[in-house]
Amino acid sequence: MAYSQIRLKILPSVRCLFDKLVQVQVEGLAPHKQVELRSKLVDDRGLMFKASALYKADESGQVDVCRAPSLGGSYTGVEPMGLFWAMAPETPHSKPLKKNVLSPTRVEIEALSADTGELLVSETNERGYMTEGMKRIPVKEGGIRGVLFVPPGKGPFPGIVDLYTFGGRLTEPRASLLANKGFVVLALAYMGYEDLPKNPKKLDLEYFEEAVTYLRGQPEVKGPGIGIISISHSGGLALSMSSFLSGISATVCINGCNANTVIPLHYKDLIIPPLTPVLKNITFTDSGLLYIRDGLPDPSLEKNRASVFPIECASCHFLFAVSEDDHNWNSVFFANQAAATLKSHGKECFQVVTYPKAGHFLEVPNMPHCPSGFHAAVGSEVAFGGEPKAHSEAQYDLWERVQKFFKSHLDNKSTC
């Protein structure tokens, strides 16, 4: 076989935004030849993530990943983006880290002979985060720390505060990709970033209030209210902001808790204590990972009521997105409890979306699934749950829902 005639194509272009779909094709193979396709990326820490799949060329010597089934490897069946979402870390319990969204994530795709393992052809897909003309502005304003993303074009645009996980410092991929959709997004750090405390003894809601005021005051941001997107521990912060602060119209809470967790939250004279973990409910998986899903008590019990956020006081719309296979905590239970609280106070401005077989970290589309990893609050590796394919499908669905939710509730003056 003349290798020079073999081509690996990434369509519509080798350069795209991270959340976009691409079509991988190999042409010029011998008819019905079996090839192994491999993908790999190296994250900003130098950790490698890989996937592979076995394909058989058609009679014209082509493999089109959008039409041909994988016969084995990291996934099977027709999976157009399988080489991306099925990537797993070489170093166990790792999650891809992207510190700097000014540069793309590079995913190398290789085609190898299934018979000999010989490399036939390779190509690199550059998956970027910022559309041309977008502004990335580091924010060190008063006490707040973060990065502001302003889309190109004539504003003003709806504004969103993006909060990430406990110990996540500052994470920019979701914020930048959301800004591409026509939002001004403030990726807000709240611990362990620049001069913010790494291990704070408490969090002050005034910090988040300052961030809301800052974002609403930007000339590119249209009012009257802003949105919040949150995940995991920051879901509780988003609920507290929605409960106590003005100017919030729409809140997305992804696998969060309806009560305070980990460290006390202060606001003016009020102190909201964290739930006390039930240590006897924390066990180990067969592989030796901590299983903490049932580690928190029922927030609705009388002794835990002081930790519950008074979301019945909120005037915003809520989107609760929860994974049934979340092993970090029982996010379905917490979301249903939050929904019941809103309903009992005559508020119907919420939706609960449930994803079977998805795990804790619902990220942007095409982000590799993270079934386990280091938990900053626990100080150890824990199970996060989820099955890769179902988790990937959940990420696609949620990404579209989040955009529709914000467009619907930030583009008009609707309140609950």
UniProtKB/TrEMBL annotation:
Name listed for the protein in its UniProt record: Acyl-coenzyme A thioesterase 1-like
Active site: 232, 326, 360
One Pfam family of this chain: BAAT_C
SUPFAM superfamilies for this protein: alpha/beta-Hydrolases (SSF53474)
Organism annotation: Eleginops maclovinus
PANTHER family assigned: ACYL-COENZYME A THIOESTERASE 6, ACYL-COENZYME A THIOESTERASE-RELATED
Domain Acyl-CoA thioester hydrolase/bile acid-CoA amino acid N-acetyltransferase: from-to ranges: 19-141
InterPro entries linked to this entry: AB_hydrolase_fold, Acyl-CoA_thioEstase_long-chain, BAAT_C, Thio_Ohase/aa_AcTrfase, Thio_Ohase/BAAT_N
